[in-house]
């Protein structure tokens, strides 16, 4: 075999290995059954998200799924309300599908009064129809004060920390059962194992490990000025923790953690905002005659709404009693915005 042939064979092998490396997540993901995917999503949400993101995206033509066309009923709307009715329906449907966690959904307008929804790989068609077709729920809830929020976060850390410590202790107990008892004098002193120059670095590593063990929940997020920001890659794990029955037990009954409707970018990172809300609904959407998402002068999401006469009285009472606090406006269980109440 000539030198040039050997070079070509080596190049082909290298390209083959690279191709297998990049195609492997797709092979694993698309050979898993629907039940296996759901089980992995529940048991290992971070691993599932990485596998799903690394796999090739197959459309409806290759893996099946659900195709739905929604028609917006504008017969009961004024000409002004009908202008952006389709856009509002589009936003509501996107919010609901995003909460469900469907991979690569396609949601787009068709004409002036239709919205197309394509959900590749979806099998629960009846549940999807119920989720998409139900009436939107708009609610107003007060944001919890920082002290109560911090106490709840610390309680969650404690629960998860105790679990981690218990899991870490199991291998040590097994080792103690296997190894014979050793006198303390036979064990080498820790100071003899590490050079003096390395001692500080080793201690720093231990302190960092201790921090993650003691704060397994809050170490996954950035808490700035009362805002809880969760990086996109940590979102599946944080969401899993929040749905953990043991965690649910330590969250006060009159309090709930709720995600923002949209993600936002800060620097090169994408974040989800997590809100601690009071469980009580201060006012429901039945007192609104109109509500629509919008943007303020700083390009931050806001909700413009018009109230009935009774709604105006209720809203004045809520805002008058809570000046200086934040009032969250939630749509289908997601926070659209949470402005500070500055006046009645």
Overview of the molecule:
Helix content is 48%, strand content 22%. It has helices at 3-31, 34-43, 45-54, 60-63, 79-82, 85-100, 125-133, 146-178, 190-193, 196-214, 235-242, 245-250, 309-321; strands spanning 65-71, 106-110, 114-120, 138-142, 222-224, 227-231, 255-259, 264-266, 269-278, 283-284, 288-295, 301-307, 327-331, 334-337. With 344 residues, it is an alpha+beta fold. The protein has 13 helices and 14 strands. Helix 2 packs across helix 3 (45-54). The chain is globular.
Task: Break the fold down into its secondary structure elements and pairings.
Layout: H1 3-31, H2 34-43, H3 45-54, H4 60-63, E1 65-71, H5 79-82, H6 85-100, E2 106-110, E3 114-120, H7 125-133, E4 138-142, H8 146-178, H9 190-193, H10 196-214, E5 222-224, E6 227-231, H11 235-242, H12 245-250, E7 255-259, E8 264-266, E9 269-278, E10 283-284, E11 288-295, E12 301-307, H13 309-321, E13 327-331, E14 334-337
Antiparallel strand pairs: 1-3, 2-3, 4-10, 4-13, 5-6, 6-9, 7-9, 8-9, 11-12, 13-14
Helix pairs in contact: 2-3
